[in-house]
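[audit] Reproducing an earlier prediction to check determinism. Same input, same settings, fresh worker. If the tokens differ from the archived copy the diff job will pick it up downstream; this log only records the rerun itself.
[audit] input (260 residues):
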Amino acid sequence: MTDFPISLTHPNAGCDGCRTGSELNFDFAFAYQPIVDLRDRSVFAHEALVRGSNGEGALSILSQVDAQNRYRFDQRCRIQAIAGAARLGMRERLSINFLPNAVYRPELCIRSTLEAAKEHNFPLSQLIFETVESEHLDNNRHLTNILREYREFGFKTAIDDFGAGYSGLTLLADFQPDLIKLDMALIRDIHQDRVRQAIVRGVVTICAELGVTVIAEGIEVAGERDFLTDCGIFLMQGYLFAKPAFNALAQVDPGAWQTV
């Protein structure tokens, strides 16, 4: 899907965020980390991770985001992530985090994303929008409405840090995204922890029945990778494969595919 499903020519279209959101007084950049597919040893997608202009950690930027500027920040993140991916020649999917509390009206707040994708000739079907389950929302219906709207535009949708947040299975019951990303706290040393193993097996079974693809993030050792593969999880992300590359596309470590 490469067409653009709403008009971009309505200068008066907008929401409260467009009119009242504070301008940003800080700059930022992105690092890109691959999500790999173990089945064919390919890169499934790259996640855009916010960084300071000189590569500083995400907290140096996120600590400056507040209720007054989060709309502008969220909008600029989308634009810069797409522009950076195009500049780097990305051919795989691009996964972008978004802030649900920064989205006022999905059909209007998405305009800058569509404009950036059109300008850089980045297919809408190659975009994944993921939201962190742990971000508190006063109304879960708002988030599910955003995700449904994004699916209508042709984007893939994902819930990040699944298992670490406020809503968990309730959110999954209300909306079935294309992808969920298991929180790294569930993944750490899972090959040695029968409780985590039971929980992850249960989530995999539920998602298989619902048609939701599971990604495991935070993979650091081969034992974690191998257990998760045995569970039927083939999309993975973590330092075992590649660390985020600042203003670049990270190369997967060839040794990460090797089994003992």
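[audit] rerun output stored. Observation attached for the diff report: The CA atoms of residues 222 and 259 lie 7 Å apart.
[audit] end
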